[in-house]
Design brief:
six-stranded antiparallel β-sheet, 6 helices, 249 residues, Alpha-Beta Plaits, five-stranded antiparallel β-sheet, Ribosomal Protein S8, Chain: A, domain 1, Structural Genomics Hypothetical 15.5 Kd Protein In mrcA-pckA Intergenic Region, Chain A, globular, 14 strands, alpha+beta, 3 domains, single chain
């Protein structure tokens, strides 16, 4: 059995459990590829519905809630957000996303138990499954050589994702053209990401360079970044289209 089939069976088992036991069942955090597999499954035909959340708008890693259709259920995702910051920022090293992730995995936390990590300067906001919250609060005291403090955040204290507005012209609203503009790449450099299975639109893997985007679509490119296509502003006399994007930073 290959890895994708193992993921499919696991997700189908979660949906079947929700239906048979008439309870809400949650997955751990799913990455882009796992979310793509999930969205291709016939969940509704199994008597369950699906809800996704990563803790904030535009989250890349998300938990899935499988809800039985027999009754009205509301998903209460078992996740928290823990902030980690240097004890004395003045003397802190220039800590990165990679540094924080490495520190968390070093204490034995699996990647599937961690959602996105939002950076705000040298401070990190870590989304995690709730069972890992006390582990992070009690066991993370140092990242690299920097002493850190941890704090359980309330939803209203979590900062909104930062983004940069990007505008420019494209010959058409094709995935390769729009992604190239969003991430400052040539179309020739963008194509291998698409054909290599590293590009997702609204959580679905897209392998076609000419895929036509719709206003509001979210594009994620593994190892590069994510953006949202806001739409076309105007069209030039030569047929070029001026479009607007938000690139998350």
């Amino acid at each position: 059995m290959n890895a994708d089939e193992t993921i499919r069976r696991h997700l189908m088992d979660l949906a079947a459990r929700a239906y048979s036991r008439n309870i809400v069942v949650y997955s751990d955090f799913l990455d882009l590829h796992e979310l793509h597999i999930l969205q291709c499954l016939p969940i509704e035909s199994m008597g369950a519905s699906l809800s996704l959340s990563g803790g904030y708008e535009a989250a890349e890693r998300q938990m899935a809630a499988f809800l039985p259709d027999a009754l009205i259920f509301e998903a209460d995702f078992p996740m928290d957000c823990v902030s980690i910051a240097p004890m004395q920022e003045k003397y802190a090293e220039p800590l990165t996303h990679r540094d924080y992730l490495g520190a968390l995995m070093h204490i034995g936390i699996e990647r599937s138990c961690l959602g996105d990590i939002l950076m705000d300067g040298t401070k990190a906001y870590v989304f995690c499954v709730r069972k890992m919250t006390p582990v992070i609060l009690n066991e993370i005291s140092r990242v690299r050589h920097t002493s850190v403090k941890t704090f359980l955040e309330r939803p209203e204290t979590i900062p909104a994702p930062k983004y940069k507005e990007v505008s420019g012209t494209v010959s058409s609203v094709r995935l390769d053209s729009v992604a190239a503009l969003a991430f400052g790449l040539s179309r020739n450099r963008t194509v291998p990401y698409i054909e290599g299975g590293s590009v997702y639109v609204n959580g679905r893997q897209i392998l076609s360079n000419g895929y036509a985007l719709q206003e509001g679509d979210r594009i994620s490119v593994r190892g590069v970044g994510k953006c949202q296509y806001l739409g076309m502003r105007r069209q030039s006399k030569k047929g070029k289209q001026w479009i607007d994007l938000l690139r998350y930073i």
